[in-house]
Amino acid sequence: MLTRVCRFGPGLSRLVRQTQVRCVSQSKPSGASSAAVTEAHAPSASSAHGEVSPYVKNPDFHGFSTDPVVDEWNMRIGFFLGISVALVIGGTFIHYLPDPGMRGWARREAERVIQQRERDGLPLIGENYYDPSKIILPSAKEQ
Q1: Global model pTM greater than 0.70
Q2: Per the record, which residues fall in region Disordered (predicted)?
């Protein structure tokens, strides 16, 4: 059995999916020819209008335009806007989101209260953290 190795250049993987590919056998040929050429895919029926696949015209087809130059520029602009700008704007948006759970505000408020209590000479936390007149305790009978 012959081993067939098909070597494709960069960007030709799309071409393989759409068109007929010719591969050169890497084994010793049995005939007089120096390399056996075989078909990797069966020939497909061409369209009636004589249209050629964009992958045949431009192996590096990105799907933006049939013109290779316009296709490449549109791809570059699309990736620049889609990735670079999205990362910058997305990162800025995430950086300026409001504080989750207001943790930053709570810390600033606690520091302000501590500074005020130190200035007034009061302990940071009093022995009666809650006002004892507002606490309702159950009677001895209910316990």
Answers
A1: no
A2: 32-52
